[in-house]
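ok trying again, last paste got cut off:
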Amino acid sequence: MSVNDTQSVVTQVIQSLVDAWNRRDATRFAKLFSEDAHYIDGNGRWLKGRRAIADLCVGAGEPVSLVEEPSIRVYGEMAIATFCWTSVGDESSRGIITCAVIKTNTNWTIVALQNTDFT
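nice, full thing came through this time. structure:
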C-alpha cells in the first residue's frame, strides 16, 4: 500500500470517528479502537479499553466537524494523525486530536488518541 493510499484509509478512519460521534453511535465509535486502546479526553481523563471509550458517546456534547484535512504521517503499517475539530453548535468549543493508527490484518485501528480542548 502506498503512502497516499494509507493516508486515504486513515482519513476515512477519522471521518468514521467523527460520524460515529455525531450520531452518538457508541458501538460504531468503539469499534474504531483496538480492544486495549488508550484515550485521553479533553478533560485529561485517561480511558483504557474499548468499553470505557464507548461510554464517551453517551451524553456527548454538540456534534463536531473537522476544521481542515488531517495531517497524517505514515510509518509502514502505522500512522500518526493530527486534526482539529470544532463544535457545530458552538464554534468556541474546539480542540486538536492526535492519534496512532495501526494496520491489523486488513483493518486500520486506533490504538491511542489524545484530545486537547482549547478555546
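cool. Residues 38 and 48 are 5 Å apart (CA to CA). The first helix runs from residue 3 to 23.
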